[in-house]
Amino acid sequence: MKAVIMAGGEGTRLRPLTCNLPKPMVPILNRPMMEHILNLLKRHGFTDIASTLWYLPEHVERYFQNGDAFGVNMEYFVEREPLGTAGSVKNAVQFLQDTFIVMSGDALTDIDLTSAVEFHKKQGSMATLVLTRVPNPLSYGVVLVDESGKITQFLEKPSWSQVFSDTVNTGIYILEPEVLDLIKLGQKVDFSQDVFPELLRRGAPLYGYVAPGYWSDIGNLEVYSKAQVDSLNGAVKLELPANRKENILFEEDVYIHPDAQISGPVYLGKNCKIDAGAVIEPYTVIGSHCQVDARANIKRSLLWSGVRIGTGSQLRSCICSNNVQVERNIQIYEGAVLGERVKVGAFSMIGADTKIWPQKIIPSGTTLKKSLIWGSQSRPSLFTKHGISGDSRGDLTLETIIQVGLSYAAFLGTDKSILVTSDYSNLGDLVKTALIVGLRAGGLDVYDGGAVTGRVTRFSVQKLALDGALHCMQDHNENYNLVIECWNEKGRFLSKNDQRKIEGILEREDYPRLDSTDLGDFHKVYNLEDKYLELLAGQYSAKRKDYKVGLLLNSNQNPFGEMINKFLHLGGYDVVNKALEGIPTLVVQENDWFFQDEEGNTLTEEGWWGLFIHALKDRKRRDVALPVHVSRIVAQTAKEQGLNVHWTRGEPLFWMEMASELGNIQKEEKLDVIPYIEPLATIGELLSFLSSQNRSLSEFQTTTHKRKAKVLIPWDKKGRVMRELIEDSDSERTLYLDGIKEHSPSGWTLVVPDGDDPFFHLYSEADTMEEATRLIEDYTNKIKSYENEER
Q1: 28: alpha, beta or left, given left = phi > 0 and alpha = psi -120 to 50?
Q2: What do you get for the CA distance between the two ends of the chain, in Å?
Q3: Mean pLDDT of 772-778
Q4: If you average pLDDT over every residue of the chain, what do you get?
Q5: Is residue 788 over pLDDT 50?
Q6: Please, what are the domains in the chain?
Q7: 303 and 290 in contact (C-beta within 8 Å)?
């Protein structure tokens, strides 16, 4: 016997899941519904199978192809327009020359088809409808049969007053080919509304077989979610992966971090990854190639293939379609459904029962409480305060990195050269390789400086006299995130204006497509670090013979620690590689470093700035540039040393420009060396000054009472809240430089809107820690009150 699977359904009640996918391809336990039907047919000996298609037929054809991979033979019959259930089967008439079975491709069942066929043959039936009993028959075609199983009456989707049975039509039919004679080819005809009532009227042998077993018509999102739960509970017999552990079903190449927590029943698809601290609660289905980042919490939710859930995000009884990206610290509540390729920005909240149509971009910090069907979509900003930054699995894939390289080449123009380096991570090296492809394809000559650390790239672009430099590195706070630092020919960060130009080129794809004769050349450059160390060791050499410095490395494989060690030895310092009281000590951890004074106390930020001010005075400087968030104690120290204070915005670019103008940086061989920005120069300023003086590092330690906090504010309210803060401030005691910095008798409070995320950053300093805390709380309450004002 042959079989026909009707797979032309649109599935409008499953939208947005079916906006770009036919209903039979919607997955149950990481397999299309139609695949479960195919497996059921195969188990009962049906291997010659036709599929009738209309809505997005290419998805079905591409997935099942000729059926070889599934152990069956597949043929397809595509309708130009919907022909109804019977009309679609008539369209496959050339395939059907003997008794055949018809099944819906968008239901879930394990009904015994062999017994149904045996019943059909035993009764000599022309058409047998497979029936089942349901608690609520209102949404189905009700069928009444006599003791022999012969059908006596139909009623399609009755009201309660019309219900005369709980036995309903499953959409599974066993038919003789003569039934198709009632259907005109190319005409829209339905089995339950047209063909079967006509057979009943004619008195043809029409039977109903009441079948035991599981059956569910996946008619809406609620039923769809319940079918997943039933499948995990084993209520329906499906072909499942052999891998099972503690009620967790998993396919091959699944990675679960030892610190992740998973409570079954749960299904994990092929090549999915669950990171440290993630919690997966019962009745969750995670599709193939999904990634659940650290500390995410997922409960009773359905994730299709390629979904990424960011760090700390929480999902509750929601559905995410293919390739949805959920960034960090997001909350998605019961009944929410996210269509294909939806991207939800960090710190957002998606309310209960919210539906988001495919490919929508939800900005970070959004609170969405109603469905989003229409709306403009825009690429998130390419540049952040750290440079070009993003997730290598999402908004900054390798393909996008190549486009970034092309855009950068268009920005710099023809006959230009650029330096490209990376950190020592695999991701940084991979990004560098992709970036070089785009840069050379855009016509730039590329100098590959290999792997470096300590912002050697900033120095090297000046040393090599190139037109710009890019440094690719992994964000150590988020392992999947990458950062590309962008430097101009002077070793400065790119201006906002230049950043916007590059973003515009990328958005318009307005970059060159060159032939092979115009591609950029490739050069390898070596020993960048050695040249940098040679210059800095001369600039910041020990001013006193045998000046001892402690150096504690937490690993011998730390490139930055090794670089510091070389610098200290080249600079003539007596390096002691152990904790030793009485000498200043550098402590280098995996992704951080700091000074300890002679008594083992960590040097504060204020301590370094105070020492730097003394070093500037020692060099006869009269001015100092200070970022706006720096302590008032530092400003007081500057005044006591006779230096004029020039406040700058907090972003490094602005401090670099002001510091250069005021002579706060070092110049060596016409090259800028910039402390506070370059780690080795920051270290060198301190050690060079201390070694020239008969003073200890502990003398520069200061005590201050500072607090900082972040306040979450939606993007669409940040501007209004900031305006009201400014209007409410006292201009006589407020600095409007970077956000607002308001002074009070006991201290000051600084409020700075974050350019990348939906936050305000709050800083305070006061005479006591209690007062500093109160200042933060007062401004937090003020911001929240402005946010909640009705407008």
Answers
A1: beta
A2: 68
A3: 95
A4: 91
A5: yes
A6: 2-217 (3.90.550.10), 241-368 (2.160.10.10), 383-526 (3.40.120.10), 534-700 (no CATH), 705-787 (3.30.310.50)
A7: yes
